[in-house]
Amino acid sequence: MTPTAPRISLPTRWPGPIWRELITSDPPERAAYADHGADLATRDSVMRSLRGLTHRERAVVVLRYFLDRTEKDTAAELGVSVGTVKSTNARALKKLRVSPELTARTGRV
Question: What are phi and psi for residue 22, nearest 5 degrees?
Answer without folding.
Answer: -115, 120
